[in-house]
Amino acid sequence: MSHPGAGTILCLAFSPDGMCVASGGSDKAIWVWGVHSGQPVLGPLTVHTNSITSLVYSHTGSYIISGSRDCSVRVWSANSGKIAAAPVLGHTGYITFVAISPDDTEIISCDSVYLRVWNVQSGCLVFNQIVLRGIFSAAVSSNGKLIVTSSHIGRVYVWEAQTGQAVASLYYGPTTPCSVGISPNNIHILLGFSDGTIQIWDLNSNKARHSAVSGKEAIEFSMDGATLFTGYGDGTVHTWNAKTGQLVSSIQPPFPLTVSTFVFSADLLHNVVVQKSTPSSTPTMHRRITQTGEPTHGTFREHIGYISSQVVDFSPDGTRIVSGSGDKAVYIWDAHSGVPVIGPLMGHTSWINSVAYSPDGGYVASSSNDGTIRIWDANTQPPYSSEVGIVVL
């Protein structure tokens, strides 16, 4: 089925049950597709007047929340495709991200100037809008209770999401952090600076520590928040103790490829993927390391094109890894051995910009700059075709 107006896919979201995938893009429309059939279930949903920049399902799967360059946030019924709540119209800049609270009652939205929390049903502000004078970065805690922002005025705030009260702040002046993140255990806040320096802010003591930690290309907490990984342009990977800031280990791989991102499995201890890539057509590698920083066997080398952080994902059980690349191919790997078990899965005619496993691990979705989303059976073995659906946008 053709989308009413060609455009680039800018965001994707799987439904919680893994049966549907929602897509939005530059054509201002949202479509919902059946994973099994590849056919449209809903759409086009066409209230927005500019590109769709962010999509998220509610935790129950009842709603789809969309953010747009038209400065609005909309709530849709995931069953009927109809508008399910009053629009959020208070933003003055385009929406950069949307999130929803764990109980599905509040929407968190952000533009370059304002951070706001809204009631899902009424569209009313839960607390008064916060003027931040130019947001550099924002992050929401995993439990939905805290919001962290960094702004042009040189101050980092931690906000209580229910009340809008600032519960902590640090002032940096002209050295304002340009990125922020929250550890999965909601204890540490990560502050990144333009010179590559990283600080870890301990919320229990309300102090920023460990300014010696640095990572020029990539930085990420482990899923339990206990370990910090940093990557560099020469392929070096450092592992840090997030509590003390002490260097645990350092790995210098024998290949000069930039570390661009880290992707974690759900077991917390193994199968951490260090993704190294170049924008040229040279081979791209993935190398696994354990949480202690020790490298394990398994170098993934099949792709011949650039891989970005959006095109690697673990299966829910952590046993497989799916990847896409500028070479238009999708591979599924054994996470322990590094051997490709399915692939190359060919069909896209341009570079792949996103891949994702369904929550049940049975399917993989891939989107491409060719304007299509393809749904693959993640368990079909070669030589049989494993494509189960295609969406032409």
From TrEMBL:
Keywords: Repeat, WD repeat
Residues annotated as transmembrane: none
Coiled coil: none
PROSITE patterns: WD_REPEATS_1, WD_REPEATS_2, WD_REPEATS_REGION
Matching InterPro entries: Quinoprotein_ADH-like_sf, WD40/YVTN_repeat-like_dom_sf, WD40_PAC1, WD40_repeat_CS, WD40_rpt
Pfam families in the cross-refs: WD40 (PF00400)
WD repeat start and end residues: 9-43, 45-86, 179-211, 218-250, 312-338, 345-386
PANTHER family reported in the protein's UniProt record: F-BOX AND WD REPEAT DOMAIN CONTAINING 7, WD40 REPEAT PROTEIN
Protein name per its UniProtKB record: WD40 repeat-like protein
Species this protein is from: Rhizoctonia solani
